[in-house]
Write a structure and sequence with these properties.
The protein is an alpha+beta fold and 621 residues long. It folds into 6 domains: 168 residues, Rossmann fold (3-Layer(aba) Sandwich); 81 residues, Elongation Factor Tu (Ef-tu), domain 3 (Beta Barrel); 101 residues, Elongation Factor Tu (Ef-tu), domain 3; 46 residues; 64 residues, Arc Repressor Mutant, subunit A, CATH 1.10.10.10; 118 residues, Winged helix-like DNA-binding domain superfamily/Winged helix DNA-binding domain (Arc Repressor Mutant, subunit A). Helix content is 33%, strand content 29%. Helix 7 crosses helix 8, helix 8 crosses helix 10 and helix 18 crosses helix 19. The protein is elongated.
Length: 621
Amino acid sequence: MKNIIVGTAGHIDHGKTALVKALTGIDADRLEEEKRRGITIDLGFAHLQLTPALRLGFVDVPGHERFIKNMLAGVGGIDLVLFVISADESIKPQTREHFDICRLLGIPRGVIALTKADLVDPDILELVRLEVDELVAGSFLEGSPAVAVSSVTGAGLDELREALKRAAASVPEKNAAGHFRLPIDRVFSVRGFGTVATGTLISGSVQKEQEVEVYPAGRRLRVRGVEVHGSKAERAVAGQRTAVNLADIEPAELARGDVLSEPGRFRAVKQVDCRLDLLRSAKPLKHRAPVHFHSGTAEMEAEVRLLGGAAVLKPGGTAYARVVLRDPSLLLPGDRFIIRMFSPVVTIGGGVVVDLGERRYRKGMDVSARLDVLASGDRAAQVGLLVRESEFGVGMAELVARTGMLEREIAGAASGLVAIAQPQPWYVDRAWFQSARDRLVKAVRLFHVKQPLVPGIAKQDLRSRELPGVPPFVMDALLADAKEVVVEGETVRSRGHVVVLKEEEEKARAAIERAFEEAGLATPALAEVLAKSAVEPARARRLLDILLREKRLVRITEELVFHQAALEKLRQMLAARRSERFNVGAFKEWTGISRKYAIPLLEFLDRERVTRRDGDERVVL
């Protein structure tokens, strides 16, 4: 079934609520004060099953200027507007303000209802039509049907229903596969059920027992039950008037303007970059002007900072701006908003969120060029820009939080980027990836020139020298793509690189090995052996490292090194004594070495699981 949300708009006392009741049979005025005063103060809701396959949900909004902020809380999620103009009064101040709000919010289509048609003669009605045509010329309502109706006599209601059906047919369904977002417009308690929050489901779906997060508070809640248009349901989808029964929270802990969404998916922000349109009827808007900011069901104070060095935005003008919010709010690119002056409190403009305002702009930066890309609708260009702006790339979760796109949409848009497989994909710019890879290859080659006796550079050293801060998995991907290098454990070397010793180095290496081999277990002092190697200390140390890597020598402690042949002979001797218990004295007697060597050797044998310590004794394993 197709679900379409219809919002009323128009001046106070032009018959919006009476018209909704005449169409649906439901009185949208729910408050006692509304019934007593005969005006709509807060949002009202009704629904109409227009055809078996089409259901209209009506959001009835206040027309009085004092309640415009309540009106704004209701029109954010509507698909089409039922624009109400009384035939006996024609166009009034809130008619124009509501019309401006609908245009600024980008509402794409609507139907005009000329109410109270029974109170005027045909000539007056025709005059009103002409005034309406002049008002909507060049707007989304130009060419829309203008149906004369009477909520008292019922005249024109069938024609209006037909006009709504035709308009609804051209409305694309909201994205039920998108990320779940439900801006809250009412919170109350129901005896026996607890806290209930309602709103127009603008994206995704929600079902019973689902975990949700309330933004901006960050609190996670469980959905105990779901209602759609007042009836119990297992699941609600985008485009439906939805009520959710929430567990473990009091009504006072939620408020209009909060948003229910997916846990951990997004983050509330305190500033957004946007494209801002100023009404022709507004006064010039100065840089850093304070405003009332309305988006979805939220309303808060904010400051408009014009970008690009502009000091003022002229009436009727359009500019990029950063809006700094007093309170954090869940906003995503593509969200529409309205701004109103502080005094007098009138609508002056609105626009669309382009970015979450996390980018720091330096003096001289072409901000407009950046925001043009993000406002373009070109997903590949948008994702590519955000990835390039991050030094080492961006993960899928961050891109979802920044753009509001689905993961499959991001994956499709990122086809020109390098994707690194993680639990979630990580994307880096292809040009940066190639440049960084070449940089690492060059650094490895230079290392070999400077350190010819070392087989390669430690991966961590290479990372800290060339790409400090790069995530380890990005470093691994770069090295894996670099066919010119080989990674062996934690060492990186050029492919084909081998350590080639000079004649004097070969002799020194042999002398070092021979000194340890001839000493057996009575190993000589390391410094003494290196000093007699006939090469300078630095090269002698590198020759020692080669022997250790080749396992010709084995380092037991920092200063004790043994030849592998001596240790192998010791292992064989102990193997003949399997299961025998012995102490340090016996070990010294078997090997003919002093305690200076015996204790470190025994600790080494314990680590190698040749022996096991048991109190003051050891057991040969």
